[in-house]
Description:
This protein is α+β, with helices and mostly antiparallel strands. The chain has helices at residues 16-55, 81-87, 99-104, 111-115, 126-133, and strands at 60-63, 69-72, 77-79, 95-98, 108-109, 120-123. It has a 4-stranded mixed beta sheet with strand order 4-2-3-5. The protein has a two-stranded antiparallel sheet with strand order 1-6. A hairpin with a 4-residue loop joins strand 2 and strand 3 (77-79). The longest helix is centred in the first third of the chain and has 40 residues, at 16-55. The protein starts with 15 loop residues before the first helix and ends in a 19-residue tail after the last helix. The mean pLDDT is 85.
Amino acid sequence: MKTGGTFFPQPPAPSPRESQRRELADRLAGPQDNMRPRRSLARLLVVVLCMFVAGFFLENVTPVPDAAWVYVDTLGVYYSPTYLRDSGRDAAGLLLTTVGEAKKMKCTPDPRAKSMGYFHQPARSMSGSFLQGLGLLPPLQSRWNRDGTWNW
């Protein structure tokens, strides 16, 4: 009787052909494991690039500040000075006040002037804002000055 032996049968030794298969599989699997971080980084870069490009299609607008000067009529509608000039209307008899004061008086912007974009300014897209923050793009000129006058 043997002493110190194992009770489990040993698997048969692999054939030379099976050994070659395993070596080939190990050689092929090795570079793939090394390529995984590169592939993950490449995928991440593609996703970031796609998000950056998509950010150019996300437009922003800057609303009229409360300090901007507007004209208010007796019906509680306020108008941009440039809208009055462009439409040929006379400002005589209209109250000159700020947007903030007009809102406090429960006045509303003229619907036509609002739809024509007189009370907002197109701003940079999300990606454009990012590039502006990095200093690669200059800031856009505002339609309104700090003192409430209009730059049109």
